[in-house]
């Protein structure tokens, strides 16, 4: 395992975010070190995507602080996050349907020669990148609208690897992928870690999480519900944190499922 | 982080060979001319009509009017179409950008009127230097456009409302500027008079321009193909380049010939040169610069563009600014054609013709798709129809109805091709 630095690359301190009447995040803490894969898990609506969007500048935070390499920073716009070195793959993929694959990959960071778009360099680089993710795309020059769901997802993932991000955030990157492509994405996550990038991986698939993550941070109803080392935590403990086994209601529910299982 | 792109050796358990570079299901164009034809029919069936309806339309128009009146394709008639195309065509270039952005600008006619009025008041009434007055007129168009963009992007007022307010407000400003007189004539020999009144009588001008255009086009295609081959990317075969360059060459030299040779020919109109210059620059901006890419991105998916770090507000404001600038510039051409600025310049059906030109030329009303050259194609269609109907002595009410029908046809083609593209997975 790569040496983990003392100061985290990215740290959230007491972050809160409201959407009108919904308190999506309350007092959330999170730390990501270089060369570390942190899985962010939680039930539907727990606030994972919202947390990601506060880091990437889509929704600025209401309260709390974001620290980058130990210094407090303000992330108000997607640009701020990109300048710091945060690359994000959103759950709602955020691609431009009318642009072709190459244009989408390099959107916001186009390659230029003499301030003219260098289509050839971009196309070449795009091909290399997509080959890494072993996806077959009919042509890198067709509009993204013509791609399948999984192909679109791979394009979105490849987008995050353009440039040289320090933190890569993947919000359910494998949700639409086949076996082969899922394995490639997990490989990619490991390669990112080996090269000293920090990775935040959101996934509902515990097998994937346990396969690649170093730590698991659990969100429940917009609050922290524990951070676990994958190596010395059992599957059940994580599930308990996600579903909130400490809650009364959940304990009752567990009892119910237990009796059901007994009955089987 | 280029190392990331090095794929690790495929897992041993994988029986499949390494992924082939191309999807075997991808339809590849066959060699030779037959290949072009099959690809062409496939594209048309998939709704990718491109400029096809316009070219067919132009041919039909030419045949119909020429059969009714043998002067339709005469030198003076073609020159007339070229000159009348330029003013509104330049305005249509601005509209193309606005449409790609997925918005609409209803104020172009009024902004053109204000531009002409500003020029007339400064240059004619107050004796300001020609060039300075023209520059200020064009810049005032830019300012008005930026103002529309600001209200749209920053305040969030829908673009059609902002520009509708502009449409009313600026035509008020125009009438106020023109004051008592109501019309100010362009002095003979002034810059604005030359805009549409000047012809390069030397035959070398038209032929030279045609030659330069063809050579530049062929060279850019060849260079691109060479660089793509060097980068091991699929490139256009030489046969296709020859075909394309040949088509452009025939087109350019036929037009140059008609402008130069027949009896009554006056040579290459300056207005056409300026319009072509605007088209070339605008096309370059749209396809080859970051700004152009951003306009398409915002038109396709504004939220995705924002998340990619694009300053969406800035793009929107600039596009409306560009539309205002080109509207005012086009307004000076209109003033030049009608002999000067008037209270009603840019009123009437100007706005409709400009938007119709962009749409007829193949720019989508639904945003995200369009070509700068559609301003030229669409405007030629409209002006040819008007010219032809004029020559047949058709009343203007009939002209309105026919132009309206053509616009409707263009929008129907746009909507239908969009639907076909959706079902063919191309929208
Ligand atoms: N733009 C928004 N406006 C209003 N409420 C929102 C918005 N985005 C998210 N929310 C609310 O915030 C809460 C957290 O949503 P979020 O998308 O972060 O969940 P999640 O953990 O990513 O869930 P999932 O696993 O289903 O993706 C939900 O209650 C949701 O309704
Ligand atoms: Mg989510």
UniProtKB/TrEMBL annotation, chain A:
Question: By its UniProt entry, which Pfam families does this protein fall under?
Answer: ABC_tran
Q: Which organism is it from?
A: Streptomyces lavendulocolor
Family matches, as SMART domains: AAA (SM00382)
The source's domain of life comes to Bacteria
Concerning InterPro entries, the annotation shows: AAA+_ATPase, ABC_carbohydrate_import_ATPase, ABC_transporter-like_ATP-bd, ABC_transporter-like_CS, P-loop_NTPase
Q: Which UniProt keywords apply?
A: ATP-binding, Nucleotide-binding
Q: Which GO terms describe its molecular function?
A: ATP binding
Residue intervals of the ABC transporter domain? 10-246
Q: Report if keyword Protein biosynthesis is assigned.
A: no
**Which named protein is this?**
ATP-binding cassette domain-containing protein
TrEMBL record, chain B:
Q: Does the keyword Transport apply?
A: yes
Q: Name one Pfam family in it.
A: BPD_transp_2
Transmembrane stretches in the record are: 49-69, 81-101, 108-125, 131-152, 159-177, 204-223, 241-259, 265-286, 315-335, 347-366, 373-392, 398-416
Membrane topology label? Multi-pass membrane protein
Q: Write down the InterPro entries for this protein, in alphabetical order.
A: ABC_transp_permease (IPR001851)
Keywords, ordered alphabetically: Cell inner membrane, Cell membrane, Membrane, Sugar transport, Transmembrane, Transmembrane helix, Transport
**CDD domains recorded for this chain?**
TM_PBP1_transp_AraH_like
What coarse category fits the chief subcellular location reported for this protein? membrane
Compartment annotation: Cell membrane
Q: What does this protein do?
A: Part of the binding-protein-dependent transport system for D-xylose. Probably responsible for the translocation of the substrate across the membrane.
What is this protein called in UniProt? Xylose transport system permease protein XylH
């Amino acid at each position: 395992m790569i040496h983990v630095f003392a100061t985290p690359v990215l740290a959230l301190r007491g972050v809160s975010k409201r959407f009108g009447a919904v308190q999506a995040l309350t007092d959330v803490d999170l730390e990501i070190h270089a060369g570390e894969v942190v899985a962010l898990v939680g039930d539907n609506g727990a606030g994972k995507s919202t947390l990601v969007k506060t880091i990437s500048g889509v929704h600025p935070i209401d309260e709390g602080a974001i620290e980058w390499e130990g210094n407090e920073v303000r992330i108000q716009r997607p640009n701020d996050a990109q300048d710091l070195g945060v690359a994000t793959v959103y759950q709602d993929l955020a691609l431009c349907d009318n642009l072709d694959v190459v244009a989408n990959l390099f959107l916001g960071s186009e390659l230029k020669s003499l301030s003219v778009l260098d289509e050839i360099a971009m196309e070449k680089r795009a091909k290399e990148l997509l080959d890494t993710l072993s996806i077959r795309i009919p042509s890198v020059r067709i509009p993204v609208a013509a791609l399948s769901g999984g192909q679109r997802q791979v394009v979105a993932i490849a987008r995050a690897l353009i440039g040289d991000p320090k933190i890569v955030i993947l919000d359910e990157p494998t949700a639409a992928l086949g076996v082969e492509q899922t394995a490639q994405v997990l490989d990619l996550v490991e390669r990112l870690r080996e090269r000293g990038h920090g990775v935040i991986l959101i996934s509902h698939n515990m097998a994937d999480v346990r396969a690649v993550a170093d730590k698991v941070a659990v969100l429940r109803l917009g609050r922290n519900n524990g951070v676990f080392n994958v190596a010395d935590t059992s599957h059940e403990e994580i599930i308990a944190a996600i579903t909130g086994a400490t809650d009364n209601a959940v304990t009752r529910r567990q009892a119910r499922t237990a009796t059901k299982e007994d009955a089987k | 982080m280029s190392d990331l792109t090095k794929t690790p050796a495929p897992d041993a358990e994988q029986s499949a060979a390494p992924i082939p570079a191309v999807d075997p299901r991808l339809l590849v164009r066959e060699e030779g001319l037959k290949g072009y034809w099959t690809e062409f029919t496939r594209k048309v069936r998939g709704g990718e009509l491109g400029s096809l309806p316009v070219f067919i339309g132009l041919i039909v128009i030419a045949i119909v009017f020429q059969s009714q009146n043998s002067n339709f394709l005469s030198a003076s008639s073609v020159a007339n179409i070229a000159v009348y195309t330029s003013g509104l065509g330049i305005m249509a270039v601005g509209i193309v950008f606005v449409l790609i952005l997925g918005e609409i600008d209803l104020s172009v006619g009024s902004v053109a009127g204000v531009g002409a009025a500003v020029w007339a008041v400064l240059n004619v009434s107050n004796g300001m230097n020609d060039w300075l007055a023209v520059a200020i007129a064009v810049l005032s168009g830019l300012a008005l456009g930026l103002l529309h963009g600001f209200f749209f992007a920053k305040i969030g007022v829908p673009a059609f409302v902002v520009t509708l307010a502009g449409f009313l407000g600026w035509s008020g400003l125009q009438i106020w500027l023109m004051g008592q007189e109501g019309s100010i004539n362009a002095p003979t020999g002034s810059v604005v008079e030359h805009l549409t009144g000047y012809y390069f009588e030397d035959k070398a001008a038209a032929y030279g321009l045609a030659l330069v255009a063809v050579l530049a086009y062929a060279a850019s295609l060849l260079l691109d193909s060479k660089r793509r081959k060097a980068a091991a990317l699929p490139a256009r075969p030489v046969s296709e380049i020859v075909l394309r360059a040949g088509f452009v060459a025939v087109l350019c030299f036929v037009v140059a010939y008609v402008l130069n040779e027949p009896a009554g020919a006056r040579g290459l109109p300056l207005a056409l040169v300026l319009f072509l210059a605007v088209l070339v620059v605008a096309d370059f901006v749209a396809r080859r610069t970051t700004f152009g890419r951003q306009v398409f991105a915002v038109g396709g998916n504004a939220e995705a563009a924002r998340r990619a770090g694009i300053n969406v507000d800035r793009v929107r404001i600039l596009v409306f600014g560009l539309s205002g600038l080109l509207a005012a510039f086009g307004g000076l051409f209109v003033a030049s054609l009608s002999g000067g600025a008037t209270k009603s310049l840019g009123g009437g059906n100007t706005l409709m013709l400009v938007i119709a030109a962009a749409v007829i030329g193949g720019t989508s009303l639904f945003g995200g798709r369009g070509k700068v050259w559609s301003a030229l194609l669409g405007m030629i269609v409209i002006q040819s129809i008007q010219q032809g109907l004029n020559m047949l002595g058709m009343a203007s009410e009939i002209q309105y109805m026919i132009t309206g029908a053509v616009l409707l046809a263009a929008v129907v083609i746009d909507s239908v091709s969009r639907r076909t593209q959706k079902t063919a997975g191309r929208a």
